[in-house]
Amino acid sequence: MTPPAGSLRAAGARLLALLALVALLAGCGRERLHQQESYVFGTRVELLTWDASEDKARSAMAEVLREFDRLHRAYHAWEPSELTALNTAIAAGKQGIPVSPELAAMLADAQQLAATGDQLFNPALGQLIALWGFHTDTFTPHRPDPARLAALVAAHPQMADLTIAGTTVTSRNPAVQLDLGGYGKGYALDRAAAILKARGVGNALINIGGNVLALGSKGEAPWRVGIQHPREPRPLASLPLRDGEAIGTSGDYQRFFEMDGERYCHLLDPRSGRPARGTQAVTVLITPRPGAGTLSDAASKPVYLGGDAWRDYARRFGIEHALRVDAAGRIQVTRPLHDRLQYGDGIPPPSVVD
Fold first, then answer.
1. Helix axis angle, 101-116 relative to 82-91, nearest 10°?
2. Per-residue pLDDT tens digits for 98-110
3. Which phi and psi angles does 11 have, rounded to 5°?
């Protein structure tokens, strides 16, 4: 799980791709709303519960935050962790590398998601991410050496290079270096939901840097969240998020640097090895299903990288609620999501697609 570089040009107000709206804190009965915040996975985390006793809510939320800390330490992409130990073994050409049952399950799931999206969701690109400088807490904008970039693209590391047998992992490609930054926040959403339910908290909103999952409702009304405008410090639209639904956004404004008038974002296209172009942001809403949080995180990457084929990639993951803002700022949205959105003032009419 890769935190964003500390000095990337992403204003604090834009750190969240999705924002819990003011409505979450307004209205009567505010004492029934309990909130806790933290900073983990390199981003702001917000937990909200409704109508649970304060003691139950605080205890459950504290357990969730402890779980987030555990996941962050266990699967960090460059500080010492189980994941970096696996990467070191892969680079050394070792075979049958033992891993924890949890990591084995995560990698098998990520491998399947990668295959569904033509390897555009590609957690094997750790070396490429590091080459662009996104594996650091002290970021200095720079372009990679062209020869090194070309060599990494030619090595073509991908999740299909892994063989996962029980709790052992083998890679046929030593260039594979795993980074679960495009998977981990969503996985943490699902873990948080499981913990809250087990502790008897049935109404909650979990927000990890803009990846959001809802449990139950906020009293008589559903939870309501916003979709961040990719170029302005305000929501592009808002919508109700219902029990078991998750929403995730990938955008070029979340982690990026500018050089010579060009924007270089952290969303790297494995086909070119370069930051993706052509899309400012995509948002996907996942209807209730097992692993909804994980899917909201992982599936947004191929939808974003797919460019004009974004709708096809959303369908591959069974996603009917999706929105894209292209490079020119034009909004395209599927009809099911359009019917649920309340657009912000001054937002141009979107193009609705079936």
1. 70
2. 999 999 999 999 9
3. -60, 150
